[in-house]
Amino acid sequence: MKKEIRTVVYDEELRIEAYRFEGTRQPFPNHFHEYYVIGFMEDGERCLSCKNREYRIKKGNIMLFNPGDNHGCVQSDGGTFDYRGFNISRTVMLDLAEEVTGKRTLPGFSENVILDEEVTCYLRPLHEMVMAGSGEFGKEENLLLLMSLLFQRYGQPFERCIPECREEIEKACAFMKQHYAERIYLDQICRCAGLSKSTLLRAFAKSKGVTPYLYLQSIRIGEAKKRLEQGVAPIEAALATGFSDQSHFTNYFSSFIGLAPGVYRDIFKTATGGNQDGQ
Question: How many beta carbons lie within 10 A of that of residue 200, not counting itself?
C-alpha cells in the first residue's frame, strides 16, 4: 500500500497556503471555507459533492471553490488520491484581482470542476516552486499568469456565486457568526430566524448546502485556523472557538482540513522562524 504523505507550506511572499497530499484515503465531510481553494487531482478518483451537484473527479481535474461553496468528497475507486492545492484568502485574492484586472473587486469562479491543460501548465509548476521554497520571481509570475487565465475563462462577479437566501436564513447565519464561541442551541437560532426547527433545517440545507450545525462548525474551524496561524496552542484555540474540548476540536479540524491542529500551527511557526506572535 502506498505510504500516505501530507505536506503543507505557507509562502510568506505570495501569502498563500500550498497543500500536497499523497496516498490519501480520508473522506472529507460536507463543509465550506471562508477562503478560495484551487485544487488539482494528481492521481486517483473521487466522488465530489459541491453545491448540491455530484461530480466524479479524476487525474487532471482542477477544482475551484469560492468562499462559502459547500463541498465534500470520498474515494470512489478503492484506492488513494494524490492532490495539490492552494488556499487563498479573500484579502490576497482582492490584491491579485486588482493586479490582474485593475479592479479591486472579489472574483467568483463560475465552475467548480474543470479540465484545462493550459491552466494546469501554470498551476503545477507554481505549486512545485512554492513547495520547494523557491525565492525566484518566476513563482509570482506563474501565480499572476494562472489567476489571469482563471479570471478570463471562469471568472464572474463574486456576488453571482452567492446563492439567494431568504432573510430568515441570513439572520440565522449572522447569529452563529456572532455567537460561535458560545454554546448555541437550535432553539436560539430558530428564535432569531423566526422559523420552526423543521422549517429552519429544510430551508437552511437547501440554501447553504449544509445543516446549521455543520455551518457553525465550519465557522468555528475558520476562526480556529486564524488563531493557530498566530501561534495559539490548539487547546486554547479550541476553547476560544466554542469547542467543548481539544479532542472534539482535533477530530473536526482534521476531518475538515486534513491536518491535526498542531501540525497546521507548526507550518506558520516554521515560516516565521519560530515567532509565534503572528505571520
Answer: 21
